[in-house]
Amino acid sequence: MTREADLSSSREGLLKHGAATLSCDSLDNYRSSSELDLDELELLEGQTSPRPRGEWSPSKRKKDNGKENEHKRAQKAKRKRGWLRSKTCWVVSAILLGGLLVLMGGFKMFVYKKPQPMDGLSPPWYPSPKGGTYLQWQKSYLMAATLVSKMSLVEKVNVTTGTGWASDLCVGNTAGAFDAGFPPLCLQDGPLGIRFADHATAWPAGITVGATWNKDLMYKRGRGLGLEHRLKGVNVMLGPAMGPLGRMPGGGRNWEGFGSDPVLQGIAAAQTIRGIQDEGVIATAKHYIANEQEHFRQAGEWELPHAISSNIDDRTLHELYLWPFADSIRVGVGSVMCSYNMVNSSSACSNSKLLNGVLKDELGFQGFVQSDWLAQRSGVASALAGLDMTMPGDGLIWADGQSLWGPRLTEAVLNGSVPIERINDMALRTVAVWYQLGQDNQTLFPIPLEGNPRPNFSSWTNDKMGHLHESTDDDTMVVVNNFTDVQGDGKNFHGRLAQEIAAEGTVLVKNGDNILPLSPSGGPEHTRDRRRAKYNVGVFGEDAGPNPKGPNACADRSCNDFTLASGWGSGAVEFPFLTPPIEALESTFDLDQVQITQVLTNDLPDDWSAVHGTQDLCIVFITSDAGEGFASWNHITDRIDLYPQKGGDDLVKKVAASCANTIVIVHAVGAVILERWIDLPNVKAVVLANLPGEESGNALADVLFGRVDASGRLPYTVGKSLSDYGPGGKIMAKPNGVAPQQDFNEGLLIDYRHFDANSITPRYEFGFGLSYTTFTFSDLKLKTLKPKTPLPSPRPNATVLPPTFSTLIPDPETAVFPAGFRKLKNYIYPYLDNSTIKHEPYPYPPGYNTAQPLSPAGGGEGGNPSLYDEHVSVSVNVTNTGKRTGKQVVQVYVSFPSDVADVSTGRKIDFPVRALRGFEKAEINATETTTVEVNLTRKDLSYWSVGRQNWVMPDGEFTVAVGASSRDLPLQGSW
Ligand code: NOJ
Predict the structure, then answer these.
(1) Interhelix angle 494-504/215-231, nearest 10 degrees
(2) Of 118, 576, 750, 942, which sits most exposed with the smallest number of CB within 10 A?
(3) Distance, CA 572 to ligand 1 centroid (Å)?
(4) Do residues 460 and 467 touch, judged by C-beta distance below 8 A?
């Protein structure tokens, strides 16, 4: 194994392997990182023999049900879902292969439907820009520099390398630099609340938050998340998620983010981050970037040796997938997590163009880049490419204790492979973020002490007593769970806010005969059978009811059983409680006047009314679930189709066949195809309640009974079929090579942009949702705040210089295990066994010694500050023409001038028909009018010119359209 192989594999390109032979054995025996990877990826200098491949056996320690080892479950799921299965594998593949060998001239052609992509499709960008270049970070960087200058090399390495999966109490942990005065850090999921924790809020999912279109609620939820994480002792919250963006409506983790549009996603992410960080907790913008599907996201997990490569052109990268990350950096996010997948054939966590060039230079990111868990695929190469922290610290295999950094990073610095300036910058960035967020305040972030462990919960047991170092051989039991309740109380009980968000994130898409809102004494008068004393309401479907085994019956929520309030995976949390819809319906209907019949199953006989009685009103609950790739339910991770699951369509049809007033409630991770019943005359109302979190039932009742207006708006398009979303909208469920290649050929045209460009009528368009009142828009005014000019101001010169340190390589003796040191098995230490260091010239990547031109689009956090200058003010009057108070979302879409030729190439530039550029939600009393203002920035009015490598505001006439959805835009103006 040579270091050249390392560079070709992990720096900028794809592994150069010959025809990898996939056999039943190799497929079945794949561990979470593949043998192929292990053999072909580099070992750091001095490591020439294969490492022992340890795999942590969770059976060593009894796990709680809900906290079962992620890796173990991934294995189970993998065994369930493999595209080649062990039992039938040999027989089926022998037949298939035999035939194919004859027909296609060999196995290789079968595996490689596409030719092996060329090495190095992502250009090199070196060296890694240093942090500490902006005034707003200067103080933190100066303090950090003082602290880092006191650190020994091994302490610096400690700051950069996780201690190993389950080695400490959080899902990710660093060991700290005690002598210098820097504590260990706890990194914990995640986007919906504190994973693996007790007495913490299970917030509505990101997709529900996106559906509120309410900036204030987005911020408040972030604040609640931040407070809870801080009170549990978490330093770094692993969220919010803004990638996947939602290229594919079936993407398994779309629900963790906020919707399929970069502006909606960016605003929601930024508001969430502001909230989290206002509580002093470091937020993590994840997953950087283009991790759009779960299939093949990670080497090994999907029985392939390599992760999928998302192949994206530069303009699409900037205008779609990067946009929310830019917004996050602009509000000062402390950490960015690089993703599992490759981008343009280079691993996202060692892609120098994306980390050094785009993130740190162009977007001016001042925080630290952490890897997703085992997304680091190389050692020196990833450090050079801009990775600052590896998580959870293990190498290519879960809990193996064989870090690609740790001692190997120490060694690489000592032998000169990793420049000392790079390790200094890695540690400095992390410490600077810690200061920037005020985590040196020991009242807010107490230093962990014996008897007062931080965090005050364990990810690995629900018991009070447990191991501090679960995956190691340290059997000492201590108090690990203090059961600290962080949910707030009284007026500040976070459940209230969670309920408000879930209610505002509920989208009413159909309301025939104004059947909603309901009255507690029954439905509307016209639905009542007057021969009966009571109004009869039937509630159908298991989604209305609680799971008899409790809301946390499935680990990481990886099943779709009973009421659905969260997707699954690391983005899920332990529900402290989950109010099922039936409970809220029962407590809201006046039972003296209403008879509720519960049929909480999806298995309904056709003649159900003969069994359960005829109903005046029927409320039917259906679901569609998905989740993260390490687990699966019913062979689902990504959704390969968008239909309701568990027979939901049949259930609705059966109920509607015998019930003239049917209301359908959908709990789902994203868009669901409603076509099999949406036009049935008896289906009067449809409510898309997304994933509401712990207060599910109460929030739904708020909307159904009109205690709040129905004010959710769709954060995605509901098409009539999956094909409506275009070829790019389909999950790649079968790999097209050993390193599957997914070309983002649709460019900018995802979700509603695809529907608009191809004149496809969706069932319900992006941004759509009904209220219980009506609104009109009038008096659109466009005011020029700054004139049109093609380019932003020149990149401002750095006003602050990064701190500098001695570049002397320390004495290797200082990096050797101290005498008598007690090593825990599998725990990752920065120390070396001895001080012998081999010096060989390191083959730095091509382009390494060529300083890159700084991006003209850079010069500030989130990019050149001039990109955020406001050029147009858009104001509009909105009148509530109905009879009750309601909330309307004013949406502003921009259409670019036609016939734009690129400034540098002269080539015609195509644009989406329209793109969302801003929104505001306003509460308006009946008959009143409010003026709403949305300002458009230079960036909103520019495209990314690949030739110019800058944002360009084209000449010509822009159309600004304002209204209630992407297809309901009554007002238009020109600028
Ligand atoms: C993998 C997931 O992709 C990421 O989102 C999460 O934060 C880590 N695991 C840690 O659980």
Answers:
(1) 150
(2) 118
(3) 11
(4) yes
